[in-house]
């Protein structure tokens, strides 16, 4: 099966048709939700947090972040970046709670230092290995992304990026780029060697409480290897098997009834278009 | 886009990012909207210390919103014991103060629906449509 990453740039691949197909497929929704819950388990957010979603697409992860109940430490407030206007258009139609940005993560992360408690990225980071123009390289794009991400997280913050590496080289290139940006990094693989293998890059920013340390995140998890700059990122990737050690109840939040009220006298409500036409 | 988000957003250009003039971005021709959302006391408390209060004051001024107090409220000013439950001192019985409600309304319920955000350093204008800001940079500006 060919990888979409090898066929088209992401903003062209995720056009209106594909974005709708993607978001309505119950199979995809299920897989993305499972991975989001796994990433949340690794982020271990204990109280309502400000979370960045990189490559948020139509907001499948965001809907979960918004629906975590207070007893489970939620709900979280999130900001999503995506390069596909069509994907964001679907998110808009669903009236997600997070703020959305049309942005290329390979150009950086336009938030001031220490903005986010955490970041999540599901099935997106491998796209950064595609150069959007001849003036760019995969390394340059990954570097701008991870440097920007690192700076935008608060000390002690964490990020979990599930991604689909094309091969071991790409897996190494992505992890070492994160490490070069300053992150403590660990790779976790669920169902390794199978068709449904999933790779999670768990990243920590030092300087906060002890639990922000990568060793704290993965302690007790079998087969997770910790890489850090001291070990020069020579990653021996191993696999962990502890799946779903904590039951995550994904509650579908009732679509809240919202009343839009315009403040400025000279403005009027305009019906939502299919997608913003930039 | 929530006003909360604007308090964290900078110009995306590498040459601007770390410069003081690139934050906060300045709204232009902004059309605001208010979308009700659930009050979330622990979130408000979490985010309070991270706000750039001066930037928020500037923003309110530029949008023609009521003036903010000179400095950010203390976390303790967000919740007060509910009238009947005062003696139990249970956190869940605490009620948001007017300060907390105002802050919630300003940061999480008020947003820019249409307009532009302008960088005070390079003058680049980021369009906002249907609440979504376009931060894609042409490659020569990256
Ligand atoms: C497989 S989808 C995943 C969407 C969402 N995270 C989910 O789990 O449903 C990959 C997403 O990454 C986005 N993407 C690809 N390259 C990107 C980039 N350079 N910057 C931001 N988003 C990007 C695509 O537009 C697409 O929405
Ligand atoms: Zn600028």
UniProtKB/TrEMBL annotation, chain A:
InterPro entries: Bud23-like, Bud23_C, Methyltransf_11, SAM-dependent_MTases_sf
Gene3D superfamilies linked: Vaccinia Virus protein VP39 (3.40.50.150)
Molecular function GO labels: rRNA (guanine) methyltransferase activity
Example of a GO cellular component annotation carried by this entry: cytoplasm
Keywords, sorted A to Z: Cytoplasm, Methyltransferase, Nucleus, S-adenosyl-L-methionine, Transferase
Domain 18S rRNA (guanine(1575)-N(7))-methyltransferase Bud23 C-terminal: 220-275
CDD domains the UniProt entry points to: AdoMet_MTases (cd02440)
Pfam family, any one: WBS_methylT
Domain Methyltransferase type: 52-160
Keyword Cytoplasm: yes
Record's subcellular location: Cytoplasm; Nucleus
A single BP term in Gene Ontology: rRNA (guanine-N7)-methylation
Main localization (coarse): cytoplasm
Superkingdom to which the source organism belongs: Eukaryota
Family: Belongs to the class I-like SAM-binding methyltransferase superfamily. BUD23/WBSCR22 family.
Protein name (record): Bud site selection protein
UniProtKB/TrEMBL annotation, chain B:
Protein's organism: Patellaria atrata CBS 101060
InterPro entries for this protein: Trm112, Trm112-like
GO MF terms, alphabetically ordered: protein heterodimerization activity
Cited Gene3D superfamilies: 2.20.25.10
Family membership: Belongs to the TRM112 family.
Any one of the GO BP annotations: rRNA (guanine-N7)-methylation
Name used for this protein in its record: Trm112p-domain-containing protein
């Amino acid at each position: 099966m060919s990888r979409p990453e090898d066929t088209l740039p992401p903003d062209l691949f995720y056009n209106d048709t594909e974005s709708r197909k993607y978001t309505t497929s119950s199979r995809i929704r299920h897989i993305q939700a499972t991975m989001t819950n796994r990433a949340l388990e690794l982020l271990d957010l204990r109280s309502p947090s400000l979370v960045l979603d990189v490559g948020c697409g139509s907001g499948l992860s965001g809907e979960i972040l918004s629906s975590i109940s207070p007893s489970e430490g939620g709900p979280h407030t999130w900001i999503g970046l995506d390069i596909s206007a069509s994907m964001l258009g679907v998110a808009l139609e669903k009236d997600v709670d997070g703020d959305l940005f049309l942005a290329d993560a390979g150009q950086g992360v336009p938030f001031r230092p220490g903005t986010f408690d955490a970041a999540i990225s599901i099935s997106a980071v491998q796209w950064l290995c595609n150069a959007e123009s001849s003036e760019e390289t995969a390394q340059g794009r990954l570097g701008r992304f991870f440097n920007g991400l690192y700076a935008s997280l608060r000390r002690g913050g964490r990020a979990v990026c599930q991604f689909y590496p094309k091969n071991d080289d790409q897996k190494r290139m992505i992890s070492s780029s994160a490490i070069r940006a300053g992150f403590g990094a660990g790779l976790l693989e669920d169902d390794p060697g199978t068709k449904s293998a999933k790779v999670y890059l768990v990243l920590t920013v030092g300087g906060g409480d002890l639990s922000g340390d990568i060793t704290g995140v993965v302690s007790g998890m079998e087969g997770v290897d910790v890489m850090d700059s001291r070990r020069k990122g020579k990653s021996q990737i191993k696999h962990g098997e502890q799946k779903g050690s904590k039951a995550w109840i994904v509650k579908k939040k009732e679509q809240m009834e919202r009343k839009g009220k315009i403040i400025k006298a000279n403005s009027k409500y305009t019906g939502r278009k299919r997608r913003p036409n930039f | 886009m929530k006003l909360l988000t604007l308090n964290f957003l900078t110009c995306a250009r590498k040459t601007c990012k770390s410069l003081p003039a690139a934050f906060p971005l300045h709204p232009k021709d902004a059309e605001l909207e208010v979308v009700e959302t659930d009050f979330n006391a622990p979130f408000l408390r979490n985010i309070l210390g991270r706000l750039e209060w001066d930037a928020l004051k500037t923003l309110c001024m530029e949008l023609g919103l009521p003036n903010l107090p000179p400095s950010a409220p203390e976390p303790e000013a967000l919740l007060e014991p509910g009238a009947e439950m005062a003696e139990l001192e249970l956190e869940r019985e605490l009620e948001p103060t007017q300060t907390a409600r105002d802050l919630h309304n300003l940061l999480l319920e008020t947003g820019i629906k249409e307009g532009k955000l302008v960088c005070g350093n390079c003058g680049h204008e980021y369009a906002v449509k249907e609440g979504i800001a376009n931060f894609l940079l042409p490659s020569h500006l990256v």
